Amino acid sequence: MRHVVWDWNGTLLDDLEVVIASVNDTISILGADPITAEDYRRLYTRPVSVFYERMLARPITTDEWHYLDSTFHDAYRDRLAEASLASGAIDALQQVHDLGGTQSLLSMFTHEELIEVVASFGIHDRLVRIDGLTGTAGVQKHASMARHLEALMAHPTTPFDPAAYVIVGDALDDASAAASNGVACILFDSGSHHRSDLAATGYPVVETLQRAVDLAWG
Predict the structure, then answer these.
(1) CA distance 173 to 52
(2) Tens digits of per-residue pLDDT, 85-103?
(3) Superfamily of domain 3-15+84-216
(4) Distance between CA 21 and CA 15 in Å, rounded?
(5) Would the pTM count as exceeding 0.90?
């Protein structure tokens, strides 16, 4: 049996334009110029506070970080209805099911809001576990991934062997989380990073979610 751990933002959810617009709403308050999709690909990183420092070209204080994070999430919530599932997301989830695999979702979006928005798209029943952020905002994903995998390996319907797991995500942070937890990873080229940067991780890079599933079973 194989198990796919899906990322949410930028992977199953096509929200890059919403994210960029929300970032611009946020930094405009500080008088900064808006960023483009190309700027986002060049600058985005975790911890997210470093992303803001790159955009603003200066260090930010802890108080500024909390203000920026809160403002961004308010703007994102206001725009979230503009986002949709990624092309092929439903087919990829069905493909895993048809292949006899199990699947879950791990996101750094706030847990309670994640549960609500995933349910609104009607895909929650395809996933044996859905985990969002319950701790500090903007941190890297590796610790959350460790907890997610630990819970899955204790679940009666999911594999115990780490070799059976594959992470599918769109970000360098997904690759880092996979490497730190010793599991496989496939990166989805959805536009949030330059493809060359994704490929530099050494993990395979795909242009469709269905191709990611093919590789996971390949």
Answers:
(1) 16
(2) 999 999 999 999 999 999 9
(3) HAD superfamily/HAD-like (3.40.50.1000)
(4) 10
(5) yes
